[in-house]
Structure of Transportin-1:
Amino acid sequence: MKQHDNSSLSHVEQMAGLFSVATEPDRPRLEESRHRRAQGRGTNMKIKDESDLGAINTVDVSDTAYLKSYPVIFADKRPPYLAIEDISAFYQRRWNCIIVEYAAHSATAAERSRGGPRPPSNRTGARRSPDSLCSAAISGPGREAAPLRQRARAPEASGMVWDRQTKMEYEWKPDEQGLQQILQLLKESQSPDTTIQRTVQQKLEQLNQYPDFNNYLIFVLTKLKSEDEPTRSLSGLILKNNVKAHFQNFPNGVTDFIKSECLNNIGDSSPLIRATVGILITTIASKGELQNWPDLLPKLCSLLDSEDYNTCEGAFGALQKICEDSAEILDSDVLDRPLNIMIPKFLQFFKHSSPKIRSHAVACVNQFIISRTQALMLHIDSFIENLFALAGDEEPEVRKNVCRALVMLLEVRMDRLLPHMHNIVEYMLQRTQDQDENVALEACEFWLTLAEQPICKDVLIRHLPKLIPVLVNGMKYSDIDIILLKGDVEEDETIPDSEQDIRPRFHRSRTVAQQHDEDGIEEEEDDDDEIDDDDTISDWNLRKCSAAALDVLANVYRDELLPHILPLLKELLFHHEWVVKESGILVLGAIAEGCMQGMIPYLPELIPHLIQCLSDKKALVRSITCWTLSRYAHWVVSQPPDTYLKPLMTELLKRILDSNKRVQEAACSAFATLEEEACTELVPYLAYILDTLVFAFSKYQHKNLLILYDAIGTLADSVGHHLNKPEYIQMLMPPLIQKWNMLKDEDKDLFPLLECLSSVATALQSGFLPYCEPVYQRCVNLVQKTLAQAMLNNAQPDQYEAPDKDFMIVALDLLSGLAEGLGGNIEQLVARSNILTLMYQCMQDKMPEVRQSSFALLGDLTKACFQHVKPCIADFMPILGTNLNPEFISVCNNATWAIGEISIQMGIEMQPYIPMVLHQLVEIINRPNTPKTLLENTAITIGRLGYVCPQEVAPMLQQFIRPWCTSLRNIRDNEEKDSAFRGICTMISVNPSGVIQDFIFFCDAVASWINPKDDLRDMFCKILHGFKNQVGDENWRRFSDQFPLPLKERLAAFYGV
């Protein structure tokens, strides 16, 4: 079986007096862990390459954290090359423009300080090199090109002079005509007219051919003080991107001029310009220039002592960014460990009179907590004492950074916080209700982190009466949330989606897994049931953090939490205000996993109430109700179907056709969860379900169409061959094939459609035959095109872009679905194609997901048409052997499974290949902490190898028999288990001494069978009775007395021993 892959309290100022710092020896390092909830059903967020930010003159998202506290131009449009994701770009409507502050969630230093990645761009297009947009000359019609110099002058000619401290000055003056032209371009670039924007983009790109173009940019930023700030800042940000893309090609004179101008202007009177200069400095530093700019850090640290506020703040801003971006090298011998000086210096500024400076100081030190930097650990008590002194700071940004520091210290220096934990918890309770939501959010992270610590239950138990109401209150939508979510818009189904509304989707490669008696298909843990109700606000906010904290605390305290929750729920769920009612439904969903047992007595009343809420007049209530009901789907399915399942299914299907797109999305996701739980319980209602899902094809906009594919694919996985009826096929396939034909090979909407078709093909089996040939051929073509593009990119990376290999992965997985569904019927398609040659290349690809999917396909083709696979076995087996590396779990898992399938087909001819794989397999099955799925597949493959080549495998029996037996005792009776046990029995007959020490484990594994085939039962009897006869009745009695009673009874009843 396969699966896809509130308010500040008046006495906070007294907090400092609550703490005193104890000194204890350092404790061992703790691993960093972060709570950031992945959003979106069925989205497997792989880490991708660095975001494609477009052209040279792109402002990237890393600037936004630094600039967001500074004024920027507000506008409703922006040039495409100013790809700022979280702040409005720089636009000038008129000379005296209106400057506003646009505060938005951004990729702040919080994530970076915790070691988390910067968020990927939402762009889904192919990645381009920064130079790829150079397409037009600088001069437009009727305008001559500025006389910029083609080559930088040599250092001797450029008037560089050195003083005794080797400080260099670069005497460069701009050509006035060229300067005016660049200024004109910068102003035109702020036009809302997209045609003008494109023209300017081309001209600015062309200017990169001139080495001293960057001199003009730094000149505009630092020397043209008469120019408006947005234009100056924009010039600096374009320069910053040039540094990122081409810094290694800058002539030395240009580099030195830029560095000198940056340091001379770090104290500019404009906060916006200071921020831009700081970004430029840190970008240069991140290009490896910390080593080549030895006076940078000493100079910035000395500027901290300046009596001029602007200079101090500008230097601190730059240092903060350097600490964020270059933390690792700062804590290395490469720079002679400057943190030994810098961290004590930063600590001195915790008591500075300026809140901005205090905030910078804390933020700088925070960068080194998670890594347990030695320079900080030496001053840890001073650091914590200073943090406590800032606990009641009037500046929100300082309070936020204090909270952030305490959260991280909770992870790595619990020993230092433990003596003060009561007061810290009380403080965090206050801050979680802070009027500034950013402070409240940072404080709310504390509960998530604390929940991971073993001390959590004891530390928080007496604070629960205060904490739970605070978290519940944080789960209400704020007024601004409702505005951003367009909560007053109830019907929007006819409004097309904008492309930025659609998250990039990445494919999850197929993973082979065994079936289990207790839980159906063993699935990878995913995030499908995470809170996914307000993704348009931000990826992470106070509402979501509060709900996630309640969720994890429910898992810590289980039913002990209910006395604190139930009185609140009773009031919330039946409240007349929809916002309050909605938050109550969210609370009910958040506690579902942890408090399920304690909630069961209330569910017969709550589930019907929730089903009624699916018809609430407010769309946001309907959508969150879908999610909460999905969290209780397992209980619903465990009851008689007419009681809850049928009415829930009926109402969810109505909501799938809701007039609100958010409700459609939530209903589709909830229904997919219900499908997974109900499985064949849905078979009587298939016609009604398919009728609704197919109708949704004509109703849905782009985004929800992708989620609809997931619901259909999950239905196919859940009901299997019951879908293979002519009337169902005729309903389902035409709209799917219509979408299939509409999409181009380069369209990423193919991913969810191909995933869906893979599940449908597997379920329909022969019912998919009329559609298989064009689908098969397109998949082969997708693989071939991707491999060809990859070869071109490898040979000439400057001329050819790297392909998006997800197209190849998803095509391989659909081919697997076809092979599994069609079985032998795929033979002629394989015979007429070059799929085995392509698969051979895919099996050697550098990308693990490609290898993972190719091994799954190999196993499925081995089962379906081995006559075509067999001639390639000599080439395939060495590759399979080298991929038995458990560091790549899914690759190793699928390679292991494929080896097992091949061995069954090869029989005794498998003998030459045993040495290539056996030792690795034995090592894997004995490896600690190996995932269950990999253990099970490894055990089955070892058993199968022993079945076909017992003489070669049996000598190693004693090395794997115990983990082998424990791995397979819980999987269902099936053909794979059957062949594996035949193998172990055969090996025992060859090497009986190999099982003697662990015979009780073999007995337990045999007893796991519900209904073995007669000849396999006879093999079990022969071994059991043989062992009993050999040791004698008395020894057997003493031996079997060690058995648990159920095991003893089962062996006696089934095998007479």
Summary: The chain has 52 helices and eight strands. The first helix runs from residue 62 to 67. The CA atoms of residues 332 and 338 lie 8 Å apart.
